[in-house]
């Protein structure tokens, strides 16, 4: 009977935690993009992840498109759902208040979830791993190749987003909306278009999270809500609106869950993450990377 | 239009109505039976096959002339796995729909939420959920008068697994369970019955019902080097845990699942990781594997044939609980009619009822009617169930 050393165990917990945390981080980044431009929390964020996974299963497994085609097609379709969400639910609201917009996203999430249930049914679905299922052993820990894909896509998203917000005009315009929407519209930025773009972007990121995690954890129609909660926790932990915060927050949350489950008690896994979240908010209410001055200006 | 034309037309109309209503009129009234299942929501994998099974059976009974010439009218409500909704649904069934008996709910939690109603309105209830507490009042240490249930209890499943492990000479086990009602109850029985079978539990790990990864728990178990792992969960988690088990290269430690694993969909979803996994299952899961002289061979084969023909999907053992519940009630209705007290008495004295999950023998002290022989140990081989030797 094979055993495993304590170092091996801890390394295993870290690897698992970082992988799960990467998914949380991607969801948290999605929250932040929309939050920065609109000041609302998009409760349908988890639904993007779910749709990403299920549409990918449909295109790749049922239709039989090769991975390289199914991946962008899925991202495009989910992005379209994000665009429709903005055009049909967010944009038409006449006198938008933060509260009414948030309620609209809750309604949208229920609608998307229900539609997914009708299309795919209630069973979980599986997706073949991108590069096989033969695990790699490092320092006594077992790593699925799919873990690298999840972590890799998080890194890619961070790089692309940094470039987008720092170097491109549109990205800068979006950042401007985040800083001050009134001033942004005064200098000629179409704020409504930026809102549309933010929904499209965060839907695309959600889709990537869903596609990469499905080979590990399966996907079913009502997975979204739980992921949204974890992702929201990560965003708050890192400081709502901060991109480095979202990534760090997600990874911390994942690692704490994994270490807590492995070393202390698996029954209280979710509690550890929440305790740390409360603890951080107690000492730094704006989150790790959040700025209290900025959050005072925000309406939410 | 002349008067004559109107007369002719209305006669034709009346005829047409009479023809359409004809088959329905053949029944002399109806027996109403209520059902509450978790048709949608997270536990729909239980309620969905249960609903389909109940509908299929009712249709079959009515096509064969109903019960005592009366139509079996089945009224099904969806509890969505929610205790409050289940309670409201049962209340509505009893007070407004005036049913003779209620079958369901699908979950232990929702069933426990409605058992007080059965006693209050003196209506027989045949639950389709696992926990023994549904029929056993722990506070007063006696059987609940109006409540019966069809599924095997987790106690029987644990006994079946432990007896099998004893035979294999295993005594060092790791317990994994989901933190839902099903997992907590199974874990309780695993821990309670362990000393009696000489089992030493070296690890006792848990995970949440929506968790996406159990690598941490399994890694911890690996460090404790048990002889086998016994996992107690239902839904997607029991598949994810299997994949993690395989990915971690732990296949040298045999994996035992609870009776909640009883669906071929799970084997398919595990994508090869279910190979060599053991679980205790009712006869309904392995109908075609049963020897011909097995008492349940005929009923289980018939059910499997009907269900797969009608719904074109693999049979789920959970539907079998609804089969047992509805057939028991139909049996009682046939014998005593729609008299709630008499139905209850009849159910309580039912002996040798051959169902999907076992041969039921009820008594005033036993409203479950089954024992651990209602389980066969099954192992997954080449992507399908095989009877374990």
Characteristics:
heterodimer, A: mainly alpha, ABC transporter involved in vitamin B12 uptake, BtuC, 12 helices, 75% helix, B: 389 residues, Rossmann fold, five-stranded parallel sheet, four-stranded parallel sheet
Q: Look up the CATH topology of the largest domain in chain B.
A: Rossmann fold
The assigned structural class of chain A equals mainly alpha
Proportion of residues in β-strands of chain B: 15-25%
Distance between the termini of chain A: 55 Å
Describe the 3D structure.
The complex is a heterodimer of chains A (300) and B (389). Chain A is globular. Chain A has a two-stranded antiparallel ribbon with strand order 1-2. In chain A, 51% of the residues are buried. Chain A contains twelve helices and two strands; from the N terminus they run ααααββαααααααα. Chain A has a single domain (6-297), classed as ABC transporter involved in vitamin B12 uptake, BtuC, CATH 1.10.3470. Chain A has helices spanning 6-38, 45-63, 67-90, 98-120, 145-167, 169-179, 181-186, 191-217, 224-238, 243-264, 269-283, 292-297, and strands spanning 136-138, 141-143. Chain A is mainly α and 300 residues long. With 389 residues, chain B is an alpha/beta fold. Chain B folds into two domains: 30-152 and 298-371, Response regulator (Rossmann fold), CATH 3.40.50; 154-281, Rossmann fold (3-Layer(aba) Sandwich). Chain B contains twelve helices and 16 strands. Chain B has helices at 3-25, 44-63, 83-95, 108-120, 154-168, 181-193, 215-224, 237-247, 264-269, 297-311, 317-336, 340-348, and strands at residues 30-37, 71-78, 101-103, 125-127, 136-137, 142-143, 147-149, 172-178, 200-207, 228-232, 255-257, 278-281, 353-354, 359-360, 376-381, 384-387. In chain B, helix 3 (83-95) packs parallel to helix 4 (108-120), helix 5 (154-168) packs across helix 6 (181-193) and helix 11 packs across helix 12. Chain B is elongated, with a radius of gyration of 23 Å. Chain B starts with a helix and ends with a strand. Chains A and B meet through helix 1, helix 8 and helix 10 of A and helix 2, strand 9, helix 7 and helix 8 of B.
